[in-house]
Amino acid sequence: MTSNPTSSWRVAIIGAGVSGLSAAHRLIELSAKSEHPMELILFEAGSRVGGSIQTKSIGKYLVETGADMFVTDKIWAKSLCERLGLQDRLISTDEHYRRSLVLRKGKPVPVPEGFILLSMASMWSVLTSPIFSPWAKLRLAAEYFVPRRMTEGDESVASFVRRRLGREVLDRLVQALVGGIYTADPEKLSLRATMPRFLEMEREYGSLIRASRRRANQQPHLAIQGSGARYELFMTLQGGVSELIEALSQRVTKSATIRFNEPISTLTSNAVTGRYQLRPNSGLIEEFDAVVVALPSYQAAELLSGSGAPNQQPTASSAAPLGDLLRKIEYSSTAVVASGHKLIDVRHPLNAFGLVIPTIENRQILAVSFASRKFSGRAPNDGVQLRTFVGGAMQPELLDKTDDEILAIVRHELADTLGVSGHEEFAIVTRHRHSMPQYHTGHIELIQQIEKQLSIHPGLALAGNAYHGVGIPDCIHSGEKAAAQLLATRLQIETSSLQSSSSS
To answer: What is the pTM of this model?
Structure first.
């Protein structure tokens, strides 16, 4: 594709979720730094920014209907907060409750201290845990002697855990922990695409137990306290994650335009002008020099294949092969039920950050997050906020139920597992349909194919949680990478044009 470098640089971003907003913000930062003027327009199909991220105030409760926190070892979310002047609004998790519970024969049991996904900082806590049978503990201890996998190629999380730790550790704990993060089937989930550090531990040390011990001895100051996840690495904002979205939106709209209720039906390239043509809801085609598609990959696929408009004949597009690859990424759906309760109505002490539910327990919920235990300001002093997750890749049929039916399921499960009684102070159901990309085995190779195909289209970029990570920091990073890529391409085109002009 060619472009006229002497004309104004017009950039479109399709989607104003956290990925699209991050791309817009980074473009504004970079264009100002390079003194490269541009016209930037964001097209949002809905009536608000932020996508699935939304914070609501319900009485004295601060409620997140989507993601409620982000990790700091992936630096991009914290860095963005600091650049937006939000550093004084950041809060960490409450250190008094930094552990997880897992359901065992209908009862919540603490995840062993130091057991973080697949690593074990304390073998004693694992071997004395009531979660596993004596045989499972012997099998787990034998992991020290299990040889490295010698073959190359991707491996599912389930295969890796069975091979190294045994089936019961998978069924009783790891499946639930992984399901709580990725709402995924571990039999299909790629270890290399989601938790590559455990592959590295096996390759370097030959054993997860040996690796955990060596790392603890080498870096005692990084000793892990708690269980389930690295909760000391999680942060949010005092007023909820929407504070980040609002600050981003305010910064972006100073230099760009956001057009709401403007879905894009088709995206094609103009062979004459060398620019991208977008057909928004208004029906009038607009041309841009560069485009960031910050949509779920299945929506991006329809757009790039020219078949995104209802009741309209598909339009041929040179990006159709890219769309075919994007369709291969599968998604799961979940419902989140946020509810507020009086503490006196909850029998369990809720002395953790949440409860994960193994599939083997035959329950109708994936996990319960004790939201007001994780972060302050989420519930009144005499109350507690719970966020219960339903559906996912393992129980997709539950999303077909009505809100009232899902609420009935959640009330029954909370009563049976945590002793929640009485009538909640509030309860809302939020559905996230086709929201969580599934990083199945072969995901990294698929993304490499997508990026190879994308390179054929300079001035076109993808952003979102479907490619290199599902969390808020990953989405921010994907948007910022897309912005940097587009500006670098533009500057390269301009440099080549100037060199051609000089030589002629």
So the answer is: 0.92
